[in-house]
Amino acid sequence: MMTKPPLTILLAGPRGFCAGVERAVQIVEQTIARFGPPVYVRHEIVHNRFVVATLERQGAIFVDELDAVPAGAPVVFSAHGVPKSVPSDAERRGLVYLDATCPLVSKVHREAERHFAQGRRVILIGHAGHPEVVGTMGQLPAGAVLLVETVEDVAALPLDPADDLAYVTQTTLSIDDTLAIIAALKARFPRIDHPKREDICYATTNRQQAVKQIAARCERLLVVGAANSSNSLRLVEVARQSGCPKAALIARAGEIDWSLMNGVRRLGLTAGASAPEILVAEVVDACRDRYDVAIEEIVVRREEVRFNLPRALTA
Question: Which residues contact 43 (CB under 8 A, 6 or more apart)?
């Protein structure tokens, strides 16, 4: 019998589902339980194909836009948030809708609205085209929000330092990259208003901090998550910047390139905020098939955040 080579898995904590994702998934599940299938969901409820497929088997139908939802049918809006035009359209068509927007994203929406009401031009730090950015910009009239993605974008803003300005941020950004953009904004616009607490969510922050703790200690690091998941992509970037250039994103254990594991004795493992723990366990099991695995979990913070479900599901 061949002896398996040793492999220590450095398991980052926290990892995987955050409170906003858990709430969004529960909203879909409980909407199906209350109204019966099918329940329509505008866009992926969260950016993870495994989660979407699981909900599809329960009776969820995912659509790109509301015009694909039959009149009178229940529809859930994704955790990323939607422009104000979407619930208005749902009401016009008589649809029963439940909003699964993460409360931390809703907080950014309210901040943007408050600044606009007080006469400030709003600058949003985020990634163009991401659903959360589309939703945040859609809280205000067209042109009221200016998007910046890089420090270079700050220099190109057609604004005057004397203008009344404020910034908000997408919740799933890289902390370090965002700090550089914020510093550039404050340097160019010293009077710019800012959030009382930074908009990057606790879960994004904690998962990035956990990756920083393990990155320099492993030869390879895997992030379980979807290619369209902003927070998962940021975890790969953070790992590479923090001492593990061989960090990679995988959706499932079946995507692991085992040829790249030759000589690896310490493997870092984490998951984006929209990836369930079952997919992490799948990776660990695949490693056990090939290696004599030891698990070392490095937990930087315990998360106890919980978000309430909409009243429509609890009344």
Answer: 62, 63, 64, 77, 78, 80, 131
User: What topology does CATH give the domain 104-188?
Assistant: Cobalt-precorrin-4 Transmethylase; domain 1 (3.40.1010)
Q: In sequence order, what DSSP letters do the residues of 72-123 get, joined into one string?
A: T-EEEE-TT---THHHHHHHHTT-EEEE---HHHHHHHHHHHHHHHTTPEEE
Mean pLDDT within 14-20:
97
**Cis ω on the peptide bond leading into residue 310 (within 30° of 0)?**
no
Candidate list 22, 44, 111, 132, residue with the active-site label:
132
Residue 132 appears among annotated catalytic residues: yes
pTM: 0.94
119-132: average pLDDT:
97
Task: Tell me the three state secondary structure of residue 219.
Answer: coil
Cis previous bond, 38, omega within 30 = yes
CATH 3.40.1010.20 fits 6-17+202-299, yes or no: yes
Q: Where are the domains of the chain?
A: 6-17+202-299, 19-102, 104-188
